[in-house]
Amino acid sequence: MRCFRPRSSKPAAEVEDVLEQLQPSQSQQVSRDVRDAVGAGAQQDSNHQLSRIMRPDDANIVGNVHGGIILKMIEEAGCIVGTRHCNAQNGDRCMAALVRVEKTEFLFPMFIGEVAHVTAEITYASKHSLEVQVKVLAENILTGAKKLANKAALWYVPCSLQNVNKVTDVPPIKYASQEQEEQGRKRYEAQKLERLETKARTEEVVPPPPNPEDPPKEQHTVGFSQSSLIHLVGPSDCTLHHYVHGGVTMKLMDEVAGIVSVRHCNSNVVTASVDAINFHRKINKGCVVTVTGRLTFISNKSMEIEVLVDASSLVEPDKYRAVSAFFTFMSLDKDNKPQPVPPLKIDGEEEQRRFKEGEARYNQNKAKRLADKKQ
Question: Locations of Basic and acidic residues compositional bias (predicted)?
Fold first, then answer.
């Protein structure tokens, strides 16, 4: 969910304790990223670029594009380049299925009338999975000015069109150097380990939404702001396999996280970043998905919201955890500037545990930003 921020305000990346201000060396890197993304195209099968203008239905009432729209476009570009590459060899036809999105930073907001240029490139391929790195440029077509709005890394596996449960082999890619291949292998091993570590949360039960007849929850508690969306999966949400596009799910997750943050701070909010999104199980056409968001940690100027996606059949009572992720939001005052967030009132050992885990993630991300700044 992306709420209003004037064009002259600082980007999310410059807010204290959330995204550190860019240093000259980082600004040079952003400029290089812009040049690289502009110059990239369909020069080879491992690259793809799509562009479209941002319309009113992509944004809120004041013209700022929702973060979920950007996430959906990122996934679409990744799916195209991944599917194209995996079908470059003889054998079963397949479709690239999203299994994980690495941490994604929202560097600059995007507005109605700007053109989003989404460039996707395959940067690593294992036997049964591939990494796609995506850059999103926002172009003002009146002035020609371009800015790097988002960067993301996604992991896909190719699923056979004949049997959705069959994962096919991924054709190898050419690397510029042995070092590049080795770095990709390290990223592959790291994400594989992290995905295994998140499996423990796939069975965690989420408390049901509040009953309107129950006494109201105390403001600024986890229960007060917890929110859920229920969505029936239709044909337009699905791939050729008849299961949900990852981008559709991410858009719903962003919307729920935004509702939670607004309910807590009662102000405009902006998506600052998304931690790794893990897709645990597929969601089929005709399923009912319940997307639930709840606050886990709050710093001085940021809110971490855990978003869990559960799916179930309309005709069977079985419910399972399909997707999980952590979103970080910031609160904006009446002048659309970052402001302190109300403290979170903790109730019970379970909420205290989640708060400490969120604090550890916050400190880890902050340390990483400081380390990147020194490079």
Answer: 351-360
What is the dihedral angle through the alpha carbons of 107, 279, 76, 151, rounded to the nearest 10 degrees? 20
pLDDT digits (tens, 9 = 90+) for 138-166: 999 999 999 999 999 999 999 999 888 89
Indicate the SS3 state at residue 100.
strand
64 is catalytic: no
Q: Is 135 exposed, middle or buried (0-12, 13-18, 19+ CB in 10 A)?
A: buried
Task: Tell me the two tokens of residue 349.
Answer: 């050992």
Residue 216 phi/psi, 5-degree rounding, is -65, 145
- Annotated catalytic, 254? yes
CB neighbours of residue 118 within 10 Å: 25
The whole-angstrom separation of Cα 231 and Cα 154 is 24
What domains sit in the chain, N to C, each tagged with a CATH number? 12-177+202-374 (3.10.129.10)
Distance CA 356, CA 320 (A): 26
**Structure confidence at residue 246 (pLDDT):** 93
Pairing of strands 268-274, 277-279: unpaired
Of 58, 237, 254, 275, the active-site residue reads 254
Q: Of the candidates 335, 264, 343, which has an alpha carbon nearest to the alpha carbon of residue 305? A: 264
From the list 60, 140, 169, 284, the catalytic residue is 60
Q: CA 12 to CA 70: how far, in whole Å?
A: 15
Burial profile 177-193: b = 16 or more Cβ within 10 angstroms, e = fewer:
eeeebeebeebbeebee
- State residue 271 phi and psi, 5-degree precision: -70, 125
First to last CA, the chain: 32
Predicted pLDDT of residue 135 = 96
Calculate the CA dihedral of residues 288, 130, 53, 3 and round it to 10 degrees: 60
Segment 113-122, tens digit of pLDDT: 999 999 999 9
